[in-house]
């Protein structure tokens, strides 16, 4: 078994560093590897600004990323809607009523995504639209 040893190098002087300091300015996050003296100096110089600043809670990213499954489900809904006589655009968001009618007809629900609740947010707020495969759904 190989052993990997990581040694930090002070970004200011090039000597050995003791820690990585993270900070943010104007919406960007930065990191510096600093020795104990430079880290203390950095914090001391920022202290007057931090005393008067407000903490901001991170709001997260841009939302859920479309998966191959969600794109396939959209294709299935569009194909079903076309067979039912709905007039839908080839691209863009599907109307909620069409999705609801599809789910009723096929027997799936976008709220059946089991892992969506792990984050503490509702699946519809995560942007999840795919159905759980039949093998994963609870049987009556």
Could you walk me through the main structural features you see in this protein, from its secondary elements to its overall organization?
This protein has 140 residues and is of the alpha+beta class. The protein folds into two domains: 1-58, Lsr2, dimerisation domain (Wheat Germ Agglutinin (Isolectin 2), domain 1, 2-Layer Sandwich), CATH 3.30.60.230; 68-133, no CATH class. The chain is built from three helices and two strands, in the order ββααα.
Stretches with pLDDT under 50, minimum 5 residues = 112-140
Shape: elongated
| Total domains | 2
Q: What portion of the residues fall into strands of 2 or more residues?
A: 5-15%
**β-strand number:** 2
Portion of residues within helices: 25-40%
Distance between the termini: 50 Å
List the total number of helices. Answer: 3
Structural class: alpha+beta
The run of helices and strands is EEHHH
Q: For this entry, what is the oligomeric state of its chains? A: single chain
Estimate the mean pLDDT confidence: 78
Order of strands in the sheet with most strands: 1-2
Question: What is the topology?
Answer:
Layout: E1 19-25, E2 28-34, H1 36-52, H2 68-83, H3 96-106
Antiparallel strand pairs: 1-2
In short, what is this structure?
With 140 residues, the chain is an alpha+beta fold.
Features:
140 residues; alpha+beta; Wheat Germ Agglutinin (Isolectin 2), domain 1; two-stranded antiparallel ribbon; 3 helices; disordered C terminus
């Amino acid at each position: 078994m190989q052993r990997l040893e990581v040694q930090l190098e002070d970004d200011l002087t090039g000597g050995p560093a003791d820690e990585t300091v993270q900070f943010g300015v104007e919406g960007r996050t930065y990191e510096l590897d600093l020795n104990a003296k430079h880290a203390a100096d950095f914090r001391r110089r920022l202290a007057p600004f931090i005393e008067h600043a407000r903490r901001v809670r991170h709001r997260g990213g841009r939302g859920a990323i479309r998966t191959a499954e969600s794109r396939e489900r959209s294709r299935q809904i569009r194909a079903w809607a076309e067979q039912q006589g709905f007039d839908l655009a080839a691209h863009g968001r599907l109307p909620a009523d069409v999705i609801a009618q599809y789910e009723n007809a096929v027997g799936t629900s976008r709220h059946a995504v089991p892992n969506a609740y792990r984050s503490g947010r509702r699946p519809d707020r995560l942007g999840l639209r795919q159905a759980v495969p039949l093998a994963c759904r609870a049987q009556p």
